[in-house]
Write a structure and sequence with these properties.
Layout (H helix, E strand, L loop, with lengths): L4 E5 L6 E7 L9 H12 L6 H6 L4 E5 L1 E2 L2 E2 L4 E6 L17 H12 L17 H8 L5 H7 L4 H16 L4 E9 L2 E2 L9 H6 L7 H16 L6 E8 L15 H10 L4 E6 L17 E4 L5 E3 L7 E2 L2 E2 L4 E7 L11 E2 L6 E2 L12 H24 L4 H17 L28
The protein binds flavin mononucleotide.
The site of flavin mononucleotide has 21 residues, from helix 10.
Amino acid sequence: MGRLRFLTAGESHGPALAATLEGVPAGLPLTAEQIALDLARRQRGYGRGARSTSIEQDRAEILGGVRHGVTIGSPILLLIRNRDWENWTRVMQVEPLTDEQAAELAGLVEAGDKRAAPITRLRAGHADLAGASKYGFDDVRNILERASARETAARVAAGAVARALLARLDIDVWSHTVEVGGVATDVARATRTREEAEASPLRCLDADAETRMVARIDEARDAGDTVGGVFEVVARGVPTGLGSHVHWDRRLDGALAGAVTSIPIVKGVEFGLGFAQTRLFGSAVQDVIQRRDAEGAWLRGTNNAGGLEGGISNGQPIVIRGAVKPISTLPRPLPSADLITGEPVAKAHYERSDISVVPATGVVAEAMVCLTLADFVLDKFGGDSLVELLDNATRYRARAAGRNLARPAAPSSGVRAGGSGSGAAPAESE
Ligand SMILES: Cc1cc2nc3c(=O)[nH]c(=O)nc-3n(C[C@H](O)[C@H](O)[C@H](O)COP(=O)(O)O)c2cc1C
């Protein structure tokens, strides 16, 4: 990330999660209520466990970067307190343990309190083994507390700020569930409105498919198992010209793919037609450029490229799908091995878990897409204040609708910009 940077901190059962977001221009109206909307959306979805649906009701406090409801250009500090922390104060204590506190903890372990005991029965599909090996821990809790997807709540809070910025440029980002446990939406039947889908159990546009997806989740739950699926994020109103073909790390598609696959559980990403285009002829794949309309928009009959060509946004909606693997922690745990002894154990460690998180992962992906687009918007248009950013973006959009951007306008003095005349600049009216 360049112009807009963010970091998160905090453990799953620690006192709080935090996000610091740097680079947001001054003058953006921002309230905790706006952020709360996205945090609530991340917690919903059929198939989620008790923690997200009843224990935590996330709310971010804005502790820096905002004055009287408006950003002031300084880093924005967001804090989400973990309500479950009160049950973990000794186990997750930040300060060193006194002798009495250490004895209290040992007593809890002796009494069979699973929270207090070191975790050594490794869980496949988690960072447990690789993380404990890498950092040299003999208690996997030191790894799972941060590897837990609870961290994504902080990303969603930061993403809500980026969403507020994008909204000022009429850029809208939304996700929906397109597949769960092998049951896919049927495009012809995906007729729910966005509001209807948003209120549905899986945030799905196809009511019929959703019923079958819910049945698959129930089937998995009954079998002590879990299921994955696919979400789709669509970004509308993205201007042509974000990102660049000129260098690998300036490509918007690469940045978006990296951002979405950085979400724990996302195992693949595709744009537009994605992998399906590899099985078609080129003539069936390319989005034929038809013409430019009266408003200056370029028209095409299809959007198989998913709004990106050459690593640059092309003015079409950006469409990204993410593959969500089945949840790793199984209610009926798989056999595993012990970190300390190296010997097999009948059951891996179990910690309260979800059965399916496709809609929630879609919301996290929206946040990552918002943060990435906001970064590229700021890179393209600059501006320390919202007024400056909007001014730059409005002038760019007006020029983009009317003419070839690369050619400078003719100087008013009448002196030809091209010198000898071969590269004469176009007149304003061209
Ligand atoms: C919103 C969300 C909720 C998740 N909930 C769980 C969960 O309850 N149990 C679990 O085992 N994994 C859950 N995961 C996924 C794990 O965090 C992830 O699989 C694990 O950290 C390993 O990372 P990897 O899948 O990227 O290899 C969740 C992921 C997301 C995005």
